[in-house]
Amino acid sequence: MIILLPLILFFVLSNRQLRVDKNITENPDTQILNTNLSPITGLACANYNRRPFAVILAGDEVARPLSGIQSADMVFEMTVIENEMTRLMAVYICGNPLEIGSIRSARHDFIPLAMGLDAIFVHWGGSHFALDKLETGIIDNIDALIYSQSAFWRKSSVLAPHNGFTNIDKLTSQAEKLNYQMESKFEGYKHKPLATGHLLLDKKSQQPVSSAQRLVIGYPGLYEVRWDYNPETNIYWRWRGGREEKDYLTNEQVGAKNIIIMRAESRILEDQYNDVNIEGDGTAAFYIDGEEIKGTWAKKGNYSSSKLYFYDDSGNEIQFEPGKIWVEIIEPDKMVKYVSVSAVIN
Q1: What local confidence, expressed as pLDDT, does residue 34 receive?
Q2: pLDDT value of residue 346
Q3: From the first residue on, what is the mean pLDDT of each consecutive set of 10 residues in the chain (346 residues)?
Q4: Residues 241, 306: Cα–Cα separation, whole Å
Q5: Which residues of 284-299 are buried (b: 16+ CB within 10 A; e: fewer)?
Q6: How many CA within 13 A on the CB side of residue 311?
């Protein structure tokens, strides 16, 4: 009996540890330690080393709400027609929504951003500037104009051309058929440590914020974006065109832990396309834990796979709060406001 007692204790404690680890893995928002982390969000997930899919999504009001937008690890947004329209590129590593859309045509400015993440670029056709680059094989890509039957579908309940959709399973299957590399080589972004001795959502006691904050981004008309920061949840909640931005699949408001304002010059091509300088360097501002951090961004090369870096004013690479990242790319002369507000709902 004395010999059996240590074995029994070992078995009980081992089972208890397994239950704890299972809970941590299934609920990344309450994680303390885990090594299988997304290189973008810094949170654990089963697909942490999956090569990202960078999917071009519509910005048009008629296409809202978007499907699967809240499942993206990272989202880039920029104006693609000056003073008229924005478009988004949603990047998926951990998320696996039932559908993603509406998918729209590529713009050439998004290609280097996807290259910097070692992503597979997903789009429905594109401007001739984008398609000319893609035809050179500069990046692995999946075009719905070519693979509409195998990797995409159109929904009869949605007006064309906003009725194109896909999902991660279909994209993965198509990428494997094309013999694309399927594991991520992206080095990732820096994050604040998870092992802080408290749950990730318990930020108020660690970094108290006296009031809610509001960030307004002066995209044109109904494309204007605002992010409302709630110190109780340490989440920035997204609004667009004066309405809550919701995910069609969940009917819940879109939120993020980190917001980046990336200032970049642009010029007009052929009286209709924006040409944005997303390689080189420029000023930036970062909104993390209810604080504003001034800094810069930098990306080397010309249509290069170099990483897009973010730095504070001291030249240190930004450490993000573990969670989703949104990058709002806007010209230096456009309005961006950051103010305190008396209350934010959510």
Answers
A1: 62
A2: 54
A3: 43 35 37 76 96 97 96 97 90 97 96 98 96 97 96 92 96 98 97 58 44 92 96 96 97 98 94 90 97 97 96 97 98 95 61
A4: 34
A5: bbbbbbbeebebbbeb
A6: 13
- Residue 120, C-beta contacts closer than 8 angstroms, at least 6 positions apart: 51, 52, 53, 54, 114, 139, 140, 141, 142, 171, 175, 180
Type of residue found at 15: N
Cα separation, 31 vs 94, whole angstroms: 15
pLDDT for the residue numbered 83: 77
Assess contact for 243 and 226: CB atoms under 8 A.
no
What is the DSSP code (8-state) at residue 187? -
In 10 A of CB 315, how many CB atoms?
8
User: Which pTM value belongs to this model?
Assistant: 0.86
Give the DSSP per-residue string, 105-138: -B-TTHHHHHHTTTPEEEESSB-HHHHHHHTTTS
At residue 10, the pLDDT reads 41
Residue type at 172 in one-letter notation: T
pLDDT at 33 (0 to 100):
52
Whole-number Å distance between alpha carbons of 316 and 293:
12
Report d(CA 42, CA 204) in Å as an integer: 20
User: Residue 287's closest CA among 224, 217, 223?
Assistant: 217
* Tokens found for residue 137: 């094989």
Q: What is the Rg, in whole angstroms, of the alpha carbon atoms belonging to the chain?
A: 21
SS3 content of the chain, % helix, strand, coil (to 5): 20, 35, 45
Question: DSSP letter string over 226-289?
Answer: EEEEETTTTEEEEEETTEE-B-TTT--B-EESEEEEEE--EEEETTTEEEE--SEEEEEEEEET
Closest CA to 178 of 115, 114, 120: 120
Amino acid identity of residue 33, one-letter, is L
Instruction: Name the residue with tokens 């074995």.
Output: 7
- Provide φ and ψ at 274, rounded to 5°: -85, 140
